[in-house]
Write a structure and sequence with these properties.
By secondary structure, this protein is an alpha+beta fold. It contains two helices and six strands; from the N terminus they run ββββββαα. The protein is elongated, with a radius of gyration of 26 Å. The structure holds zinc ion (ZN) (2 copies). One zinc ion (ZN) binds next to loops.
């Protein structure tokens, strides 16, 4: 078994439009490579910094993310008997090397929140005026019945 610790620059497309890892930022890898009967078993962790914006209030978000990976790279194409349902997911050792990028991308993208929030109880933005509701507790807009608005106009004229 070999252990491999490395910083690599993050490739493109590690994320979704709302949240992801900046291309070129550091990804720390701690991986183990184990020769098994069928191929090479890669397991370990990747650490990245995720940036994005809150899906409710649009504030910028930064957080650390650790994902675990475990993937078996086959020495040769598995026979039909070995293949499970997800045939496309099989990976191979090609020219004595393995391509970890799609494995890491899958691990990171599936770990990202579908609707990122700055905090669980983020109240988002006022639908009327767009201010941060967290900044102004109790913020609301008077919704006046038009008939009452008319009466207010009357009292205004009396002054
Ligand atoms: Zn928020
Ligand atoms: Zn408002």
């Amino acid at each position: 078994m070999r252990t491999f610790t490395e910083h690599v620059p993050v490739p493109e497309d590690f994320g979704t439009p709302l949240i992801g890892v900046k291309p070129g930022s550091d990804m720390d890898l701690e991986l183990r490579f184990e020769a098994v009967h069928e191929g090479i078993l890669v397991s370990g962790s990747a650490f990245v910094e995720v940036t994005g914006e809150c899906s409710r209030c649009l504030d910028p978000l930064v957080s650390d993310l650790e994902v675990n990976v475990q993937e078996l790279f086959f020495y040769e194409e598995p026979s039909a008997d070995d293949l499970g349902e997800d045939e496309d997911e099989q990976r191979w050792v090609e020219h004595d090397s393995i391509d970890l990028e799609p494995v890491l991308r899958d691990a990171v993208v599936t770990a990202l929140p579908f609707q990122p929030v700055c905090r669980e109880d983020c109240e988002g933005l006022c639908s009327e005026c767009g201010i941060h509701l967290a900044d102004e507790p109790g913020h609301h807009h008077e919704v006046l019945d038009p008939r009452w608005a008319a009466l207010q106009g009357l009292t205004g004229e009396e002054n």
